[in-house]
Every structure is written in structure tokens, then in C-alpha cells.
Amino acid sequence: MKKLVMAFLAFATLNMFAADLDLWKNSTLNKIIQSGELRVGMEPGYMPFEMKDKKGNIIGYDVDMARKMAKDMGVKLTLVPTSWDGIIAGLITDKFDIIMSGMTITQERNLQINFANPYIVVGQTVMMDKKLADTIKTAKDLDKPEYTIVTKLGVTGEIATKKFFKKAKIVTFETEADAAAEVLNGKAAAMVYDQPYNVLFMSDKGKDKLVHLDTPLTYEPLGWAIRKGDPDFLNWLNNFLRQAQEDKVVGFSDELYQKWLVETDWLQRVQ
Fold first, then answer.
1. In what order do the strands lie in the sheet with 114-115?
2. Which of 187, 158, 161 lies closest to 173 in space, CA to CA?
3. Beta-carbon contacts of residue 40 (< 8 Å; ≥ 6 apart)
4. Which residues contact 151 (CB under 8 A, 6 or more apart)?
5. Is the pTM of this model over 0.90?
6. If exposure means fewest CB atoms within 10 Å of the residue's CB, which of 14, 35, 134, 138 is most exposed?
7. In the prediction, which pLDDT does 1 show?
8. Could you tell me the strand order of the sheet in which 210-213 lies?
9. Half-sphere exposure (CA, 13 Å, Cβ side) for 72?
């Protein structure tokens, strides 16, 4: 009987080992290591996380983080520019290995894809025509039929706009730049979009022309997205992120935050 039990345990152990081995073989992380290439999907139009400089190179917070990630993996980095409306489909169909594009973690998206732990938290804020500063004191004051509120199509800014502005006219645009231009040109009263973008816009084109209502309307953690059913890759990403955030000697995460979200010298490269 004892021999039978031992044989059963040995058989179970072998099955578990085989299952773990199959899981690793099918892991995106293993495929990245075997191919020697990390493919990162991103939409290069979301300052300061990813955008193109004057030479057409993609730069930004997420790009620097992706470079660090590829270096730690010991592989080369390949950026895959992708339109926002097709970026989740591109991940699912294996056009790239990971989305690193300032994507907000939402329950709806989480039904299709998995997220690593948040690497930064942002919220939706409002940039408003300066001419309204005497009458509009809070975002709530803009919720009237006579005001047009703009945002970008298909992002959490659109969701927040529809949630908080039930009476105002809402217009969406393909890019955040087009939406912001509507407010600058006096065709819209205000724009709802991610706080980091709005802060940078106010330091440049919006200066002396717009007012930033900087109290966030929402809580929005940003995370890297991967395909479902890949615990090995998810584990590696979370450990990589924890090291980047907590390593006080290197201070990589703090350096990125200062470089892209506090300082504005890089704006000269994209204008």
C-alpha cells in the first residue's frame, strides 16, 4: 500500500511539473527570451508618456520604461505604433507582446486583457476657456446646455465626460490635440482629459489662454497590459515594477517622473 501511495505521489508530481513546463513554454516571457525581442504596442500621441519628436522618433515616459525592461530581459526593444481603437485587438492577436501606452486599468478592459500593478495614478481634469473664469469656478458649473465639452474618443476621458456632464453638449475627437484646439479656438468651453497631459498643455500652448480646473474628477491607475492566461509574464512584470519603484540607489522611477512629468525641457523636441 505504501509503495502504491508513493507511486501515486510521484505520478502527481510529474504531472504538475509537466503542466508547469507547458505553461512556461507558452509564456510570452519565454517567447520574448527565445526570440531576443520585446515588442511593445503604443499609440505615440499621449504626452508625456509616448509621442514623436521632430525627427519622428518615439520618446516619452513609457518608452524609457520599455527600454529599461528590455535591457533587464537581455533583449532588443521594438516599438509598434498602433492606433488606440485597435490596440487591445493588436495585443490579443499577437501583434506585440505588451501594451505600454498610458492605459487606464478598468474593469471593462480587464475582461479582455490582464494588467500588471499600476505604475502611476492619474485622473481626469478640465482645461477651460479663460474667458469663462469669472463665471465658472468648478467643473460642475460647466454642466449646462450652453456649454460644449470636448474630449478624445474611446478613452476614459470620454467616459468621465459623459458621467459628469449630463446637460452640456459633448463632442469627441480622434486625438487629444484636436480636442484641445477646439478650446483654444473658442469653439468649445472646456476639455476633459488626463491630468498629466493637461498640466503640460497649460505650461505651453494653454498658458494665458486657458484655465486648469486641476481637481481630478476620477481616480485612474495606469498599467501595462498583457494577454490573459500568462502568470509567468505577469509575475516578472510586477517584480520588475516593484524593483524600479523601490530601488532607492538607482531611483529609476523617480528619475522618469521628474524628467517627463515635472520638467518640460523635452517639449522643445516635439514642437
1. 76-81, 37-42, 98-99, 225-226, 114-115
2. 158
3. 62, 66, 77, 78, 79, 80, 96, 97, 98, 99, 100
4. 157, 158, 160, 161, 170, 172, 173, 179, 191, 192, 193
5. no
6. 134
7. 55
8. 169-173, 148-152, 190-194, 124-129, 210-213
9. 15
CA distance 154 to 77: 27
User: In angstroms, what is the C-alpha Rg of the chain?
Assistant: 22
**Number of residues that this document lists for the chain:** 271
| Class of 124-218 in CATH | alpha beta
Residue of 247, 245, 240 lying closest to 98 (CA atoms) = 240
- pLDDT tier at 121, thresholds 50, 70, 90: confident
pLDDT digits (tens, 9 = 90+) for 125-167: 999 999 999 999 999 999 999 999 999 999 999 999 999 999 9
Please tell me whether the peptide bond between 81 and the residue prior to it is cis, using omega within 30 degrees of 0. no
271 Cβ neighbours under 8 A, 6+ residues apart: 54, 204
SS3 144: coil
Neighbours of 211 (CB within 10 A): 17
Place of cell 498602433: 82
Contact assessment for residue 103 and residue 223, using Cβ atoms and an 8 Å cutoff: yes
The CATH homologous superfamily for domain 2-121+222-270 is: Periplasmic binding protein-like II (3.40.190.10)
